[in-house]
């Protein structure tokens, strides 16, 4: 699985959707959160690879402790990013909900976006 290629494709689709006049700020915010989530996935894949390589080598107990501490720091950072992504998605939903209450996006009496 080529993660860089997948990220480029996702970014391309997101950029194309920005040309749609019906896209909302909330939707853009949610897409941004999803791109961040994808980037976090790449970080986790890299950490798994480092973990595999580390375990294949002969290491001392001190090296294992240091590696575990470093990995714990990375995972703590990922958890913070995950919290931010959730907040960003919720904000995107709230932005659209606020817009809808002010200017309902109705095309006709029975049609919504």
Question: What is shown here, in short?
Answer:
The chain is mainly α and 113 residues long.
Please tell me about this protein's structure.
Mean pLDDT is 80; it is low at 104-113. The chain has one domain (3-102). The radius of gyration is 20 Å and the shape is elongated. It is mainly alpha-helical. It has helices at residues 3-18, 25-56, 61-102.
Main traits of this protein?
single chain; 113 residues; mainly alpha; 3 helices; 80% helix; 0% strand; disordered C terminus
List the helices and strands and how they pair.
Elements: H1 3-18, H2 25-56, H3 61-102
Helix content: over 70%
**Biggest sheet record:** none
The coarse silhouette is elongated
Number of domains: 1
Provide the structure class.
mainly alpha
Total helical segments: 3
Overall radius of gyration: 20 Å
Termini separation comes to 35 Å
Mean pLDDT: 80
SS strand fraction: under 5%
Task: Give me the strand/helix succession.
Answer: HHH
Uncertain spans: 104-113
Q: Tally of extended strands? A: 0
């Amino acid at each position: 699985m080529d993660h860089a290629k997948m990220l480029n494709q996702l970014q391309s689709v997101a950029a194309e959707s920005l040309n749609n006049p019906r896209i909302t700020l909330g939707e853009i915010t949610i897409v941004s959160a999803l791109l961040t989530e994808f980037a976090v996935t790449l970080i986790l894949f890299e950490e798994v690879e480092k973990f595999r390589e580390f375990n294949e080598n002969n290491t001392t107990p001190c090296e294992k402790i240091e590696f575990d501490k470093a990995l714990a720091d990375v995972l703590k950072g990922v958890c913070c990013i995950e919290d931010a992504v959730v907040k960003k998605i919720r904000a995107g939903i709230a932005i659209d909900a606020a817009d809808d209450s002010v200017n309902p996006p109705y095309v006709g009496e029975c049609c919504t976006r």
